[in-house]
Design goal:
heterodimer; A: alpha/beta; six-stranded mixed sheet; 21 helices; B: three-stranded antiparallel sheet; 62% helix
Chain lengths: 537, 342
Amino acid sequence: MTGVTPLLEVSGLHIAFGAREVVHGISFSVGVGEKLALVGESGSGKTVSALSLLGLVQGASVRGQAVLHGGDQVGGSVDLLALPERALQAIRGQDIAMIFQEPMTALNPLFTIGEQIAEVLQQKMGLARVECAQAAITLIADTGIEEPERRAKAYPHQLSGGQRQRAMIAMALACKPKLLLADEPTTALDVTVRRQILDLLTDLQRKHGMAVVLITHDLNLVRQFADRVAVMEDGCVVEQGTVDAVFANPQHGYTRRLIASKPQRDVVDPGTDAEVLVQGQAVHVCYPIHRPGVRGWFSNGAFVAVTGADFEVVAGQTLGVIGESGSGKSTLALATLGLIPFEGDLRLLASTWGQGVSQDRALRKAVQVVFQDPFSSLSPRMTVEEIVGEGLQVHAPELDVSARRQRVQAALLDVGLDEEQFAGLLQRYPHQFSGGQRQRIAIARALIVQPRVLVLDEPTSALDVTMAQQVLQLLQQLQKERGLAYLLITHDVDVIRAMAHKVIVMQRGRIVESGPTEEVMQRPRDTYTRTLLAASE
Amino acid sequence: MVHVSPAGRAWQRFRRNRLGFVSLIVFCILVGLSLVAELVSNDRPLVVVYQGQVYTPMFKDYPETTFGGDFATPTDYLDPFIQKKLAEPGNWAVFAPNRYGPRTLNYFAPAPNPAPPGAANWLGTDDRGRDLLAQLIYGFRVSVLFALALTITGVALGVITGAIQGFFGGKTDLAFQRFIEVWGAMPELYLLIIFSAILAPSIALLLILLSLFGWMGLSDYVRAEFLRNRQMDYVRAARALGVSNWKIITRHLLPNSLTPVVTFLPFRMSGAILALTSLDFLGLGVPPGTPSLGELLSQGKNNIDAWWISLSTFGVLVVSLLLLTFMGDALRDALDPRKADA
């Protein structure tokens, strides 16, 4: 960072909540016009560190120094952590602005985005009302939102996720800040939109010459965007340097693990004579939706979530389903599980849903599921033994308590959880486990009834990268051992590359492309597939 | 290593709240004492030894002739003559600390009614000559037991209806919601007045009438929790495992939906005590002669000079409602997931 005038120098930053210290004396600096990425897994203290610079962390005791050089508001150099609240208020938005992860909750739903941006201008720049409205429209246009005059009059819920994030950026840039803190600005967005927002940030950064601190867990983003990177683990900065240097030659073990955490492909081909377990033809799912006006009193409209879906899963094979949120991929998973009504022909092991109670029960045993969020997929008030053993109570009620316990222990062992690591494992409650461990418990719950088909609904997207990699490895291993068929729902191209034998790409409820994974990845035919792949480069 | 369930953790957090925990203990002691009120405040001796014979007047009526009286009527142990007989050498009797029952009238009282506090009646008497302390002890018992019963029926009705609405949703939910709107619009107090005019007043009638209207608020909370929780992935996973509706409700949804129910328990109790007191105050509550805090309050209003009536009744009400409120506060904090587990 030689030759760059420092803008913000943080040194010895400690943050503690009560007796628990979460950030242990970190130091980093940002130069004028520099792009620094703060990388780390959830709980590493990266967001808290950034928020504490603006005095936005409530109930925490913050020690250390954060010197801002050449701020317009205070002049000269000031220590942000020592400033009184009033002085900080002047700095917020003016010298240092912030954008957040979830624009839907960060924008006020009761005001139009034009009004919200104008308010910032009025407060901070002292502009007159008419000027503000005009300036807001210019700002909105700068962030690449089409028809800025019309969009300025829109409420946050009337905009798409990408447009909302653009509006947030417009608001943050209203006062031409010297430093922008961007807290996971693209995490809540779809992959194809992520790229656009990142390009926009790069553009604006160059145009205004402002410095950006990007807080993220996504190494792809860092590589594309940042000049320098600081890697955080457990409240410490373990490594920092230029992006090229750190990625080419990571020094710290954690950085190496993080960089190597891209999922590895380790799957075997099921062979040509493998049994077809799931076969869907023209599967069609629609939800009733409320129709506006008087008509809505008498009948519901229909929202088509999935239509004309043809797919096939063979024993020992993974069918990857990729698409953005709202593309119908999770609906397809629920239909396969028989949890929502559907039309069309869906054959599972030469049977289908709704043939009667006993047939359905047999199918339930054969088709199991692992959900995305390991925190909501385990009942917080049941012990591990109760959670994992539940399937046995339904499908093997003849087992007595000790036999069931043995089966539960065996299933937990299969997913890599045993008594040696976790004393009293069976009597523990979900809150005593990390996200990755919870996901293992969820897999054990599915495996205990010895299913043939496992529906994986975004099994790793709520996990940190290193955890996600381990869970994927476990799934690969289980598939090889037991010849399981996976229906893998994901939005992550890397996961598809690592896991899937065949892939279908979904957009707005339709399958736009399908085929063997390599073929689709190497030679995508559909334009949407190309955008999707380009976005996750 | 012992693994603590979420309920166990809540209990530990509750215990850490000194005020709430002490309130719980004090309240339990008070309720316990009032449950054995016959041992604490009774106009009959617990045991009598008279001329070498053992009598248990607490459980059995003895005619006055047993103790050397003239008539075959039940013994009045407040009668100075009987007391003199019992005090003769060789005879003895164990009395309750407070020598009056809830309906005891002291025909041998030295002062006119209502009598101020003194050696004979520690808190004085009411305008009918009944001992105030005995009235308060038995009135407290009636209030607490009534509140407990009302809370149990209200919670049971609220949880069941809320669970049905939240779990099945759709048309069931819609129908129930409209019914609750209509039912909730009924004028509760007027119905009580009408019914108490038609039917003979009794505690059971009061319990039924108040229960009919007391479940709606809770049912809304339970419904909302069920609606939220049934979307959770653990419920979907249970469905995918083929778990029956009934098992899903009892094993997955109920335990995870009871937080608002438990939180409101002490507040419902205090609300119920207050409801009974105000109905008694208006004369619409328990049948005449039943010891009741509300009736004492209305006596206090009618006899402003007899300050001991209103003051001591007020004291009992304030203490019991405060204890319940402290408990409720502590419980709410203990069950608040946002509170740190420090």
